[in-house]
Structure formats: C-alpha cells, structure tokens
Design the sequence.
C-alpha cells in the first residue's frame, strides 16, 4: 500500500501493446488485384514514436507470397516509407502495385531518422521489422523463407546492412538485396568524392547519422559501413548506380561489389551511364529499365 492507503499504480499498464499481437489495419484496394494494409505497427522503440509499415500484397494469393522489403532514402534525415523516388511518383499504377502484379508482396518500412536516434538504431529497426514480418508471416500470407531487401540511397545503405548483419528471426530467409546508388563505405567517402567531402565535419548527413564525424570515430564508421560486413555467406546483391552521381559517388557501389566478389558472394553491378542521384538525367526508358531489372532480380531469387 502507498502512504495514501491506495495500492501502488500498476506501471506495467503504461507499456505499449505488443506489436506482435496488435490487430492488422483494414485492407484497401488501390489497384485491381492489389490489397494494401497501411500503417501496421511493427515496433515501439523506447522513447520513440511507433514504427509502421505498409504491406502491399495480391488480393487473392494462391499461397504464401515472396516478399520485398523496401527501405526509403532521404539522407537518413527525411523521407517517406512509400516513396521510391521522384521519378516514380507519377507512375500509374505505382511501383509497389507493379511489384504485386509481378507476383510479389512488398513491405515499406518506417525507421528512426537521424534527428530521432543515431546509428545503430536504424539497423536495429530493420532487424525488428524482419522479425515482425517473420513472426506474422502466416497471418500476412507472405513467405518468410523468400525475402529480398530493396533500398534507394540512404535506404540502400540500410538495406545492405540489414542483409549482411541483421539478427532478426527472418534474417536467414533474406535471399538478396537490391541497392540503388547507396553508400557502402562511409570511411572512404572523402576519397571517393575527390576532396568534395570533409570526414571531420560534424554536420554532414553521415555525421548526423553516426552522432559524430566519420573521422572522429573510425570504429563506429566501420560498423556502419556495409562493405565491412561482407562474408562468403552474404546473400546475392544487385547494385545499380549512376556514373554521374555527385551525392554518392558510384565508386561506393564498386567497393561493395569488389568486397562481395572477393568473399565469393554473388553480385551484379550495373553502372548506369549519364545518371545522377535519384536517376536524375536518365531518360524515362532508362528509369523503367532499372526498375524492371530489379524486379527480375527479386523474382529470380524467390521462385
């Protein structure tokens, strides 16, 4: 009893509901044959907002559907989970509906941005999402044994880290990873930019992610760099990067491809001539080709 004579407050009631048991959101149908569950909570990190995902899937699947897990870009600082980039915002049907029409389900994730938490929070969020998806796979009608990660820009960096390092229950089911113009070696950005990046600057996007300038904490920078987590057991990678990218030099994708090849892991690297970051400067047919090749890669790995 408390001094007032009343029983102590049951503080356990303040804890959020377990995302593993929360009801799934109602389904909508944005395109014929496509079902969308928008805003399913997959994790509630302490001191943070609930993290949500959208699940796109066939409306009437014949059985468990292979799953693409999409990770958005935005310099780890901004971005929306349902945005593949500006070149895709006018597509009708949109890119995620097209993936469903190709026989895949798609989970589009939130994660904590660098203004909310520093690395490794973002890597941990992706691991939590994989665990949630694996734990509720039967209910979601997705195949926990056939998963491909797909990210663009900062999301490609996080997708690669998740594919290489996540300890979630579904990690062993990650068969591949699609990376569009993503950083892979944060410690080598100064060299790859040819002097256009200051690794001692605490205000860069990378420093805001890490909580310190890359040069100030080499161990942390190495831990946050996918290239340093490659092994012979790494899943297959498809790396697409524009040769004219001035935000993330294409050498970053070359570094990851070289590390994967040296480890004996399967990798395909495509350097896209004349393309800037976000596929700026690439003709529409070139953008479509990048998307189609990525879909083909995901389908081939999950047949």
Sequence:
């Amino acid at each position: 009893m408390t001094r007032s004579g009343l029983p102590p407050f049951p503080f356990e009631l303040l804890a959020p509901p377990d995302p593993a048991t929360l009801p799934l959101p109602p389904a909508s149908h944005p395109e014929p044959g496509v079902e969308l569950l928008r805003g399913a909570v997959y994790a509630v990190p302490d001191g943070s907002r609930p993290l949500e995902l959208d699940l796109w899937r066939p409306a009437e699947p014949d059985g468990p559907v292979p799953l693409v897990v999409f990770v958005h870009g935005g310099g780890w600082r901004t971005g929306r989970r349902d945005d593949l980039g500006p070149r895709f915002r006018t597509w009708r049907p949109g890119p995620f509906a097209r993936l469903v029409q190709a026989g895949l389900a798609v989970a589009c994730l939130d994660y904590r941005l660098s203004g909310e938490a520093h690395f490794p929070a973002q890597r941990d969020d992706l691991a939590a999402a994989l665990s949630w998806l694996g734990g509720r796979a039967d209910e979601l009608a997705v195949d926990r044994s056939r998963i491909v990660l797909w990210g663009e820009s900062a999301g490609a960096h996080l997708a690669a880290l998740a594919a290489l390092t996540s300890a979630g229950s579904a990690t062993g089911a990650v068969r591949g990873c699609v990376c569009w113009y993503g950083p892979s070696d944060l410690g080598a950005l100064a060299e790859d930019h040819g002097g256009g990046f200051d690794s001692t600057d605490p205000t860069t996007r990378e420093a805001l992610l890490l909580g310190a300038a890359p040069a100030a904490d080499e161990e942390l920078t190495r831990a946050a760099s996918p290239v340093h987590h490659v092994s012979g057991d790494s899943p297959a990678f498809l790396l697409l990067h524009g040769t004219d990218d001035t935000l993330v030099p294409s050498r970053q994708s070359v570094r990851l491809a070289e590390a994967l090849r040296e480890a004996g892991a399967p990798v395909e690297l495509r350097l896209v001539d004349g393309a800037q970051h976000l596929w700026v400067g690439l003709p529409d047919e070139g953008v479509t080709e990048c998307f189609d090749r990525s879909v083909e890669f995901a389908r081939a790995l999950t047949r």
About this structure: Residues 167-171 have pLDDT under 50 and may be disordered. Residues 284-301 form the longest helix (18 residues). The longest strand covers residues 142-152.
